[in-house]
Amino acid sequence: MDYLKIFSPATVANVSCGFDSLGFAVDNIGDEMTFVKTPHQRVEITNITGADLTYDVDKNAASAVVQKMLQEANADFGINLTIHKGFSPGSGLGSSAASAAGAAFGANKLLGNIYNNIELTKFAMFGEEVACGSPIADNVAAAIYGGFVLIKSYEPLDIIKLPVPNELRVVAIHPQIEVKTKDARDVLPKNIPLKDAVTQWANVGGLISGLHTNDYKLISNSLVDIIVEPHRKNLIPFFDDVKEAAKKAGALGAGISGSGPTIFALCKGDEIAKNVYNAVEKSYRNKGIDFELFISKINHEGIKILE
Ligand code: HSE
């Protein structure tokens, strides 16, 4: 194989209660990337569209991942890549993760599939580190594995793919402001009361159990984040209004997607999702901030080969 075109999905990390440990992939939003094998043992980005990102191969999350993989595999070839961003960087929908995970997946194909998904996730985490300073796994693992994932452990890295109830849909609103992941991490408390930790880990357990048993009620009452959201929501204008509108319209729950500013709502079925979409749209209209709105199924398969 010496050419490949892929789709790498956007992802929602944390999923309310699972800070840095839960994530899921979105079906119809993501990046398209191409990979061409070259004889000159260099990695080059030949085109980036859809966003203004660096062509510096050491600083771009995608090329940095490809470079590391070729070096570690002692490859005798190089790769030219193109990146078409299907959604904005800094949105909280795992933009750098989609590129980093897509890069790991694409380079692996040209290397002859020598790495497994855990190894690909580790390479993609390096891309996250290049992009935002922290090697976080939740977005990249969700993009690589598809569906819902649990980062069971970081050291050693252990990822569990979780089932996705059939009728689950996501509505996401991206207010057109940028929240840098680093800033969103800096506002978090270093210590949390034991009582809050107990509530939070019970909700993680409830959410995972709900996913396994198709128990939408349990999913709904587990989509609660009392540790991270109270601090981060102040970075997102009208967060409470959106959350309230989504829940009133029937959403199972709503929260901050990754480090924000995107706000996501999980819904049961297309009809409720459409109502939530309309209610969220109405809640942000006339607020003086541009926004994009998405509605999607959950992506089950992760990164897809297009050509
Ligand atoms: N889990 C991460 C966070 C996702 O919330 O900071 C952002 O990459």
Would you kindly provide a brief summary of this structure?
The chain is of the alpha+beta class.
Question: What features would you describe in this structure?
Answer:
The mean pLDDT is 96. It is globular and about 60 Å long. It has 2 domains: 161 residues, Ribosomal Protein S5, domain 2, CATH 3.30.230.10; 130 residues, GHMP kinase, C-terminal domain (Alpha-Beta Plaits). The strands form 2 sheets. Strands 1, 2, 3, 4, 5, 6 and 11 form a 7-stranded mixed sheet that branches. Strands 8-9-7-10 form a 4-stranded antiparallel sheet, with helices on both faces. It is an alpha+beta fold and 307 residues long. It contains 10 helices and 11 strands. The chain binds L-homoserine (HSE). L-homoserine binds next to helix 4 and helix 5.
Distance between the termini: 11 Å
Report the CATH architecture of the largest domain.
2-Layer Sandwich
Low-confidence stretches: none
Looking at the structure, the CATH topology of the largest domain is Ribosomal Protein S5, domain 2
Q: What characteristic shape results from the CA principal axes? A: globular
Indicate the radius of gyration in whole angstroms: 19 Å
Count of alpha/pi helices: 10
Mean pLDDT: 96
Name the CATH class of the largest domain. Alpha Beta
What are the bound molecules? L-homoserine
Order of helices and strands: EEEHEHHHEEEHHHHHEEHEE
Please outline the major beta sheet.
7 strands, mixed
Helical fraction equals 25-40%
- Helix vs. strand class: alpha+beta
Tell me the fraction of residues in β-strands, as a range: 25-35%
> What is the number of strand segments?
11
- How many domains make up the coordinates? 2
